[in-house]
Amino acid sequence: MVAADEIKEGDVLLELEDVHMTFGKVQALIGVNLKIRKGEIHSVIGPNGAGKTVMMNCINGLYQPQQGNIHFKNQRINHLKPYERADLGMARTFQKVEVFGGLTVLDNIRLGRHVHFRSGILSGAAYLGKTKREEIEHRTFIEEQIIDLLEIQHIRSKPVGMLPYGLQKRVELGRALALEPELLILDEPLAGLNLEEVEDMARFILDVNQEMHWRVTCLLVEHDMGVVMDLSDRVFVLNFGYMIMDGKPEDVQNNPEVIKAYLGEEDLYATRA
């Protein structure tokens, strides 16, 4: 096991400390420790069943770990619900697209702005004053920051359920970005996409991390090793609930334990021969 490089405490946005998650007799996470720096793309890799999605579910509050602590922005969040974590600045996309098929692209993305509305019931019902100003501000943000970035101007008024799968993935990403998250959790954003769509999505992730008016920290779960190694600042490797290593992409790529986890013992020896 290779320890992560020393990180200055002020740079840490998310920290997992000795996290354990068990389902009956199945140990999904066993003593997981992880630190995510502000402004980086930190990927999580591992074979099927390694515990990657379970870890994401613990981070955003769908699961409550039986042991260990999760800190976000120096605050322990074990007890917080998913919507409370969203209020703190955490957003997520899912392995299987979770969109409202009967709503338009624009309406799906607008739903992600709900945490930023501050007007009351009366002004909202009358659509006057603060509510109207807020609506204009949020609409401008969505149009200029998200729809342009994801290149979906041409489908903004179409029902999402009628769109191809790759475009639905973009809409889900847009809805997550509408929260203006400090941490964006991307659970297999490239799954089910063709080569052109993979290239587009990889470019969007880089743009989100580097070009938005605020720097979005990304936690990426992905099986496409080429994309992971190209995009990531650091890579965290899980295998059957255990952390193998957490390090720079080039170090992870050449680590025998990582190769073994993906290829198996016999293939590992073959690659050395």
In terms of topology, how is this protein built?
Elements: E1 12-23, E2 26-37, E3 41-45, H1 52-60, E4 67-72, E5 75-76, H2 82-88, E6 90-93, H3 105-111, H4 121-126, H5 130-150, H6 165-177, E7 183-187, H7 195-210, E8 217-221, H8 225-231, E9 234-239, E10 242-247, H9 249-253, H10 256-263, H11 265-272
Parallel strand pairs: 3-8, 3-9, 6-7, 7-8
Antiparallel strand pairs: 1-2, 1-4, 4-5, 9-10
Order of helices and strands: EEEHEEHEHHHHEHEHEEHHH
What is the name of the CATH superfamily of the largest domain?
A: P-loop containing nucleotide triphosphate hydrolases
Largest sheet: 6 strands, mixed
Structural class: alpha/beta
Tell me the β content.
Answer: 15-25%
Helical residue percent band: 25-40%
Task: Give the uncertain stretches in residue-range form.
Answer: 121-126, 265-273
Task: Round the Cα radius of gyration to an integer and report it.
Answer: 20 Å
The helix count comes to: 11
Overall domain count: 2
Summed over residues and divided by their number, the pLDDT gives a mean of 85
| CATH domain class of the largest domain | Alpha Beta
Instruction: Write down the overall geometry.
Output: globular
